[in-house]
Fold this protein.
Amino acid sequence: MREIGVEELRYLARGAAILGAGGGGDPYIGRLVAEQALREHGPVLAVEPHEVPDDALVAGIGMIGAPTVMVEKLPSGTEAVTAFRTLQRELGRPITHVLPIEVGGMNSLAPFPVAAALGLPVLDADCMGRAFPMVQMVVCTLDGVPAKPLAVADEKGNSVVLDVLDNHWAERLARSAAVRMGCTAVLCSFPMSGAQARGTVIPRTLTRAARLGRLVEQARRDHADPCAAVADHLGGRVLFTGKVAGVLRENDPGFARGEALLEGSGAHDGSRFRLAFQNEHLVATLDDVVVASVPDLICVLEADGEPVPGERLRYGQRVVVVGAPCHPRWRTPEGLALVGPSAFGYPHGYEPLGPA
Amino acid sequence: MREIGVEELRYLARGAAILGAGGGGDPYIGRLVAEQALREHGPVLAVEPHEVPDDALVAGIGMIGAPTVMVEKLPSGTEAVTAFRTLQRELGRPITHVLPIEVGGMNSLAPFPVAAALGLPVLDADCMGRAFPMVQMVVCTLDGVPAKPLAVADEKGNSVVLDVLDNHWAERLARSAAVRMGCTAVLCSFPMSGAQARGTVIPRTLTRAARLGRLVEQARRDHADPCAAVADHLGGRVLFTGKVAGVLRENDPGFARGEALLEGSGAHDGSRFRLAFQNEHLVATLDDVVVASVPDLICVLEADGEPVPGERLRYGQRVVVVGAPCHPRWRTPEGLALVGPSAFGYPHGYEPLGPA
């Protein structure tokens, strides 16, 4: 149990943007919203899963939609509270703890405005260990914990409560609501007891993100290579160094889908690198050979270790691409069925990524 | 107050298909679902608005989606009860009366399975006096009666509760849910007190539909012209007689949109007639001149007076098109702003349609 204040948010946001693998929304915006809430209401208590009582009522909070849209359509800061209150009313009893659904991009910070405003603790944990684009892509699905009932709210004051057949239907109906709300909205879902939460969530991922964010700063101070430090810390490796030669983007409209083409420099001079993304970076190919793939993390950084959210990728940027292993649960047959290449329609098999 | 049994459903369904102006879903399917419920549970009590107590809790029921999809994707018969129960749970007290949102196509019959199964009376009334394609297109909107909270349910067991800013947002979010549920779903909405209902709904429209259905049968027995009899009874006129030369359809995907081209015969020999539709027939042109337009009714009949639902229009059909005046409330400036030509994006002004 520890307090998270404004100071730590900066590290947390950076580390989460790395773990977000391009997705989860621009952590800069997420940080501003969370910072404002913390300045207004004071620091937020982060508790570890083992500190949560059995009979607690935990709920996950996160943005849903296309991060590209969020570049122009900023959150109002109230939609998370609306989603939370809507779900709480549906459940008929107080939610005692909030939880980031994913530890990626601004979504790691999505529960903070609610926690700060309502004086609730945040779980130092998440349901993915990274960011994935779809609601059902959580360890909760592997453990039979339903997303329902779930609430979706927008910044205008609309809210929706869903009672769904399964977590795949949660994704379909929450996504269609989010699209109609303007391609971004906030989700409050996966209500579970403290005992259930302990049995499914991935612990200490906020701590992990903050540590990663600090490590980048430390490497800079030490005149070390921050990108290599990140790869090393995550047990992965640098996949590519080069320049963005082109980005193809479409809003489909519930996701930011597309492809980025990179041209190599240094050790990769003359090579071509492709990144396919659906909010998160899904597959990386080097000269048409797959070198990293979901569920492993593909993270795009600037040379100084600053993560580049997918929607900020642009022509001419010089970047370093780091690949890192995903949480071990995603490497099981059930995990791969849910979030592996085939779950995204790719024909290639999954090759676990490791250190260089 | 009177009982509606299986016998009357037949007339009601036919009359409602005429008042549906091409939309509201195939009344044949609606009749089968309602008939089965009546055979199982007995007749349904129809009450007039003035018979409803002030403190009654009334809710509207209707299908939402693209009637073209319903040709293949039949309702299960349970989704209306699911939508009803979902809304009732949200309201926290028993709904005492159900009401067709529109008196058109199968939607006039949509409340019957719920009323029969739960032993509730149906209001002999509706909120349009015809069928229109969108949720906000009801007299309730003119009277400031909100659609919210509203429930949408599908035949698979998914349900959604919406809390929305206004009736236009009700349309947007209910439509997107219906689309994701497979382009058809059931809506339970416009919860209102008995006093509110009396002040807004259009009374005795079920009676009107049944009378219209009987009139067609009577005209046939009398060897009279059933289409002329319908036009006469509705205070309208026959707009065109001819053959369907082509139908262009698209699911957009929440509606059945398109255009039908008709070639004249008899008095209209050599003339071309166009029908533009969005579920309901919106605009009719005779040799490129608008001869009827929303909010007035444009009804397509076979020569024997049997109505043709829009989704059943097909090449080669010989049809009679009848135009009829809408309810007077739609001819006010506020009514026209909500359901007139401009509400559907048409540039032409509204010319009230009358008898020949």
About this structure: Chain B touches chain A through 21 residues (CB under 8 Å). The domain at 224-344 of chain B is CATH 2.40.390.10 (CV3147-like).
